């Protein structure tokens, strides 16, 4: 079998988080009553004229700057004509089309670095980011015999981010999409929730018999709505193309979907060409003018991006590279951690609690289902400041790390402050040398054989004694003082 080499490019649609639609003042409201946010413009009534949503344009520029793109000073709108029941206008206003004189997307020639599992970095080119309006939604599962149509989504603003065919493996595709999703969330231009469809991914894939061979014919797999589906669909399509070519067949250019149940890709239609859409410059909208001032104004709104934040967490807060990466993966998680760290003298210890206890709680949804941490954090009963306070109590020696787990469970259940829980439950660590020495004496006297063995050099028995004393003191003894008192019985 030849060593087949993948060539993969992704087209990612991001719904921009604007208050209103791209060309009219209809509100964008997820979950609204169907067909309640419509007007002559987004329904494409004759004579209705679109006007451009400035916020959407600024979001597109912000996304482009975060992805190191050039910003076109004169983006141009085009009309893509096609018939489909979810598109009452019969055309979509976009910024693509193919012919050079009117192909002016708002952003082009950017890049995104992805980190691979082996620690290396690969740069993936971004060909272009263009703005366009979304279509409506067909609903097929409301009745057995009819389809329903909701026009609320007609005209909501999208950015399509098109990558260069620089991606080589399914894992790289997932890493690219993960990073892109992070950037959309960090820049605040969209919610990027794949389940809700405000981040949608199409994958182009072809194979060739080596890195230097010409590109093969590609298949486009539409609407991959999770990272798992992306990875599996790319793998399945690769296998199919290998089998096809090695059995003497040819790969036809086509549009496909991923059949989850059977883990295979299925042809939806043979690939349409650009001329099928009869693109032409949009007659109802003039070319946009993007001044340097506007670009600089938008650049000033760029927040700290995931990479910079990771570096800062490692450099300033002393986190390991791995911890910083986990904590920065979702912006709400990073924000939560940062608020907790600010309320504590030991950010590294806060990170340890965050990575284990807090994320475990946040990821546990109703009925024990696993949910994204970013969604679970707002439901926690305790605040970041309270976690900082808990870590502060450990640092001060008020409670032991072991007791802290008990306090944490109470925080999870009640949302009470750690100090209050410690006081009410009498969990303060015992640091009274007299009481500790007395407890150690009792344990030592009850276990003379083990004491002799410890004296003779069986160091493992130290843990046994500390454990017994801790048990006798209901977990509240100060471990350092217990060890010290134990030493006095060994000499
Ligand atoms: Zn409208």
Comma- or semicolon-separated keywords:
39% helix; nine-stranded mixed β-sheet; binds zinc ion; three-stranded antiparallel β-sheet; 18% strand; 3 domains; Arc Repressor Mutant, subunit A; 491 residues
Please outline what is shown here.
The chain has three domains: 295 residues, no CATH class; 111 residues, no CATH class; 58 residues, Orthogonal Bundle (Arc Repressor Mutant, subunit A), CATH 1.10.10.410. 39% of the residues lie in helices and 18% in strands.
Main sheet record:
9 strands, mixed
Strand order of the largest sheet: 2-5-6-9-1-10-11-12-13
Evaluate the radius of gyration: 30 Å
**Dominant shape:** elongated
Counted beta strands: 14
Helix segment count?
Answer: 16
Strand content: 15-25%
Measured as a percent range, the helix fraction is: 25-40%
Report the uncertain regions.
none
């Amino acid at each position: 079998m030849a060593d087949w080499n993948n060539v993969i490019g992704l087209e990612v649609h991001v719904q921009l988080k604007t208050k209103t639609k791209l060309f009219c003042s209809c509100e964008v409201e997820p979950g609204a009553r169907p067909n309640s946010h419509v007007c002559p413009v987004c329904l494409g009534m004759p004579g209705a004229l679109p006007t451009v949503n400035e916020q959407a344009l600024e979001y597109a520029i912000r996304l482009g700057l975060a992805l190191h793109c050039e910003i076109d000073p004169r983006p141009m709108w085009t009309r893509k004509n096609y018939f489909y029941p979810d598109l009452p206008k019969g055309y979509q206003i976009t910024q693509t089309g193919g012919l050079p004189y009117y192909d002016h997307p708002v952003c082009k020639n950017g890049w995104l670095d992805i980190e691979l599992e082996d620690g290396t970095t690969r740069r993936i080119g971004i060909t272009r980011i263009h703005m366009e309006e979304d279509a409506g939604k067909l609903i097929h599962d409301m009745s057995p015999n009819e389809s329903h149509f909701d026009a609320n989504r007609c005209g909501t603003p999208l950015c399509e981010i098109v990558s260069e065919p620089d991606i080589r493996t399914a894992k790289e595709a997932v890493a690219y999409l993960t990073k892109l999703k992070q950037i959309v969330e960090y820049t605040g231009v969209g919610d990027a929730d794949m389940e809700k469809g405000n981040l949608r991914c199409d994958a182009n894939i072809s194979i060739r018999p080596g890195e230097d061979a010409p590109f093969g014919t590609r298949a486009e797999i539409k609407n991959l709505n999770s990272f798992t589906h992306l990875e599996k669909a790319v793998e399945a399509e690769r296998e199919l193309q290998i089998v096809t070519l090695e059995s003497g067949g040819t790969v036809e250019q086509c549009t496909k979907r991923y059949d989850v149940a059977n883990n295979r890709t299925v042809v939806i239609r043979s690939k349409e060409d650009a001329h099928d859409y009869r693109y032409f410059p949009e007659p109802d909208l003039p070319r946009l003018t993007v001044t340097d001032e506007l670009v600089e104004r938008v650049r000033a709104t760029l927040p700290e991006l995931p990479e910079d934040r990771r570096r800062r967490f490692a450099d300033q807060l002393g986190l390991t590279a791995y911890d910083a990466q986990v904590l920065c993966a979702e912006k709400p998680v990073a924000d939560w951690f940062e608020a907790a760290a600010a309320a504590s003298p030991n950010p590294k210890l806060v990170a340890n609690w965050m990575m284990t206890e807090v994320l475990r709680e946040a990821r546990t949804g109703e009925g024990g289902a696993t949910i994204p941490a970013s969604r679970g954090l707002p439901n926690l009963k305790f605040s970041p400041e309270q976690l900082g306070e808990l870590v502060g109590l450990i640092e001060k020696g008020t409670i032991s790390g072991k007791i802290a787990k008990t306090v944490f469970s109470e925080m999870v259940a009640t949302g009470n402050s750690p100090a209050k829980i410690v006081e009410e439950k009498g969990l303060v660590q015992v640091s009274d040398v007299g009481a500790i020495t007395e407890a150690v004496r009792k344990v030592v006297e009850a276990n003379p054989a083990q004491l002799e063995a410890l004296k003779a050099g069986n160091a493992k028995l130290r843990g046994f004694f500390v454990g017994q004393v801790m048990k006798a003191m209901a977990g509240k003894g100060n471990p350092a003082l217990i060890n010290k008192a134990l030493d006095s019985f060994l000499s």
